[in-house]
Protein 1
Amino acid sequence: MKLANRIQHIPPYLFAGLERKAADLRARGVDLIDLGIADPDLPPVTALKRAVARHLDDPDAHRYPTSRGDPEVRDAIARWFHGRFDVSLDPETEICVTIGAKEGLANLARAFAEPGTVVAATEPGYPVYANAGAILNGAEFRPLPLTPAREFLPDLERAAGARLLYLNFPNNPTGAVAPEPFYEDVAVFADAHPDTLVVMDAAYAELSFAPPRPPSALRFTRRALEFHSLSKMMNVTGYRIGFAAGNADAIAALVNVKTQLDSGAPVFIQRAMADALALYDGPEPPEQARRSHLEYGRRKRALEDGLVHAPGVRDVYPSPATFFVWASVDDDVGFVERALERGVILTPGRGFGETGAGFVRAAVTTSRERIERALARLAGGPGGG
Ligand SMILES: Cc1ncc(COP(=O)(O)O)c(C=O)c1O
């Protein structure tokens, strides 16, 4: 069997060893506190769950969907976008339903990236940009470092010449939010570089705990595509539903690729998303979603406040969004190994690209009580202090 070069260029999974160690510890009955996974533990928004059940009874919900998405669902997305971001979209040409943000982020690149081209993205970052965006298409990956010295904002000029520029704010893994002037800079960049499509991954746009709420990049430029997802917005990572919005040519390209590769998200899930988005009151999420966002915020603050005192931690970078805490340490892999020996699972920063070396990420997807217990375990000296 001979695999294509592109699949052999996907970097080896660095943490297989750590995961094996965690599985061994669990098998021996050790109670591990998992701050590694970015998967919400709070329950799905009830109205969304009920809407899925309701739409399962729609007589026309069992056939092939379309890759672009149900027209009425796209209308609902346009209404939500207007209420939430004050941005008007043409549901016919400027919106595409996706099977979660991940599918769209990856499939879009097939329309733009090829050998001899460059895909740029913020780094540390969601590995899909480098792996599915660049490497699987035989393109070169160019990281735009996010560092404390630059307040976790990229130098956009480094993306000059790229076919695609993936940006991600609020950011995984750093938790950083971008201030409005940054979005203005993005618009200037997009105008000056018409051969580069700006892609804003806004999967965490609803997970913010303090004003101002993250804006849409589309309020600043229409030469961009933006991805949204219900995964973290409503605690339904398993439903696989989201959407792309923005530049009509880019949407057409995405739809073209999707038509060859998938048949769209199940109609009953699409319609449930439309119902859930309709529960927003202008920019304000429904009460249950809001409560869960605020709970992530409280947990995040508790972890930020505590982690800064843990031995081996140099600095913590608090932020008002996402459910991630980003901290600098002496040696990320060593820190994570010692944390695991004390029963706490963290993610080494280099899992998000070389720029992440020397940092660790903690996801607050477990109860406050478990987070306090994790802090007590870490205070015991896993950082080598
Ligand atoms: C930055 C970022 N974008 C996109 C996704 C994927 O979201 P979805 O579940 O909608 O595919 C994730 C998931 O962890 C993420 O962290």
Note: The radius of gyration is 21 Å.
Protein 2
Amino acid sequence: MDGDRLPERTCVGCRGRGPKGSLLRVVRTPEGGARVDRSGRAPGRGAYVHPAMDCVRRAMRGGALARSLRTALGQAQAASLVQELTEVLGAP
Ligand SMILES: [Zn+2]
């Protein structure tokens, strides 16, 4: 029984694991794009990534994020997701 343990999720960027709350959730949109799920509870298929640009870049570069969401992100969709992630992370 491990019911007392925090649920863990795998980062699609570095494949490292972490407690659910420490990872950013990205959710597939009905249009087949993806957006940051700031509530962590949005319906739809989700993927997790560490709140670090390194992990975000790795997740995007290899297509791991899109694969995990079972969608094919177009260039514009990928760009707007990266833009949103950058805002959430407060990266320059
Ligand atoms: Zn990571």
Note: Residues 75 and 81 are 10 Å apart (CA to CA).
